Every structure is written in structure tokens, then in C-alpha cells.
Amino acid sequence: MPKENTLPREVLRPKSRVNAILTQVNRDNRGAQLVLSRTAPQMLTALLQKEVPEIAEQIIDIKDVARQPGLRAKVSVKTKDHRIDPVGACIGMRGTRIQAVQQELEGERVDIVVWSDDPVQYIISALEPADVDRIILDEDTKTADIIFATNDQLARAIGSQGQNVRLASELTGYRLNMLLEDEYNAQIENETKVYRDLFYNRLEVDEDLAQALVDIGFTTLEEVAYVPAETFYDIDGLDDEAIDAIQERAKEAVIADELQKQQTIKEPSAELLALEGMTPAWAFQLAARDIVTVDDLAEQAIFDLHDIDGLDEKTAGELIMKARETWFD
């Protein structure tokens, strides 16, 4: 069992009896080496299965585990029998079951959380004991703004050295942004101003109409340009002709931005494209990194090209050496 697989405060001596989870089997000519761990999430799962009969009998499922080994952990559970309280079953009478687990893990505090397929409810449960005021969720980016009414609740949600929020984020799979109500309102106000100014300046509309576009959810010129015309019907005073004009100006702005972007993209030199072994795909990726000429390439190290798609170290080295041949011509 490697040192990094042991708990921070424990000292293990040769021939000590210890509970651990088998995480890896390394085989070589001399036989098999078994790698054990007391820090893996599976270790906590195995201990709960041992101490909680309802888990062993699969009446209660362990859904997710997040650990800071030896310090704190969060485990989410779900019951298949709604007559059974999954949290109470895991804790046991007077905490006997969870205490047995914690003692085995050198006092690691284990929070039991009710799992939910509703991400908002799941996050609220994971952040306990803090009281969440509200949550703004983005399922596409797996982020959530968590709003708190008071500093006390915010501090409780973050926990000592960020421990509580870090484990809650790992448990739920969401990046959690913690904000006070005033901070969130200021953030929304700033974002609203950015969007309103964008539409005011680029679409040639007055401030009221720019604000109305923000109010119905627009944040980009692309959205204004290409959504169905019916989307604008919630704005008072806009007829079909006005909607067409707004969308036409939005399309023109999008095209202008794209042309500007294309003009700023660097292209590789003809010599770089013609270099023996070079492909157009690699050359354009290099140009995007300001490696435009053969001399530019000659000045690079192999590591500098490690993020070029499809280019391995051997080929990168060959291209660099080929480029350096020009130094001796």
C-alpha cells in the first residue's frame, strides 16, 4: 500500500492488520503485485456496505462518493423502499453505524446526503447544513450560481478551507459559484448593461428596445439574427416589418464580425507550407500560434509543438530539424 494511499494521520507498521480496498493488480515476470488503498472512494463504499445491512441487501443504493481522505466525505444515497429513511439507516441508532465507519477512517467526518435526479434539489442537499436561498442552474455547462441571503449561510456552505463546497461540487458534478444576494444582483446588472449596450450600438435601436431584447432573453447578435420571428412578439410595439429590420441588421453585424475575425487569422508562409513533411493542417495550427515562417519553426523546441493535433514528438523533431537546415544553407 503506497504512502499516498494511506490516511494522513495514520501510521502503519509491517504486519499491521488493516482494512483496505484492492485497487490495482500489477503483473510482471516475478508475479503479481496487489495495490491497496484506504483513500479511494470505494473504501468508504465498502465500509458502509459492511455497517449498513440495507446497503448490503441493496435496499439502499450508494449513488456518489466524494472524499477528502481522513478529513471529510459526502455520500449520496437512494432508497428503493420509501418506507425506509436512507439517511437515518446509514447513520444508525444514536449514530452507531456511521461512527463505526468514521473510526475506521481515523475520524473522517462522513455526511450522508439524499440523492435526487433533480440537480437543484441534489445541490441543496449536498450543501447542507447551509440554507440556500436560490439556485440558477446551467445544465449545458454543468455550472450553478448558488445564492445566499446572509454571510453566515455563505460561510457555512463554503466550509472550512472550502471543504464543504468542494466536496458538494465533486459529489454533484456541478461547478458551484457561491454568491451573496447583493453580489448576484450586481453581477446580473453588469451583464444586463453589457447586453443592452451591445444591442443599442450594433442594431441601431433605442435603449428601451435594447433593454426589451435583453428582458426576453437575448444575449448575442446570433440569437437575434436567427431565432424565429415569433420570438419577438412579446415585445410591445414591434410589427413584422420592424422585426425583419432588426434581424437583418443583426445578420449584417454577425457577418461583419466573422469577416473581421477571418482577417485577423494568420496564415502560414508559402515556405512553411512547402517544408518537407509538413501538412496544411499542421501549418495552419502553427500559424495560429504565431509560428508563421520556417525560421519561426526552427526556433521551437519539440515541447512547443506538443498541442498540435496529429503531430507526434518524432515528427515534430524531424520538422524542426528540417527547418533548421536553412540556417546552414
UniProtKB/TrEMBL annotation:
GO terms for biological process: DNA-templated transcription termination; transcription antitermination. Residues 120-185 form the NusA-like second KH domain. Pfam families: HHH_5, KH_NusA_1st, KH_NusA_2nd. GO terms for molecular function: nucleotide binding; RNA binding. Keywords: Cytoplasm, RNA-binding, Transcription, Transcription antitermination, Transcription regulation, Transcription termination. It comes from the Bacteria. InterPro entries: DNA_repair_Rad51/TF_NusA_a-hlx, KH_dom-like_a/b, KH_NusA_2nd, KH_sf_prok-type, NA-bd_OB-fold, TF_NusA_bacterial, TF_NusA_KH_1st, Tscrpt_termin_fac_NusA_C_rpt. Residues 38-115 form the Transcription factor NusA first KH domain. GO terms for cellular component: cytosol. The keyword Transcription applies. Gene3D superfamilies: 3.30.300.20, 5' to 3' exonuclease, C-terminal subdomain, Nucleic acid-binding proteins. This is N utilization substance protein A. It comes from Faucicola atlantae.
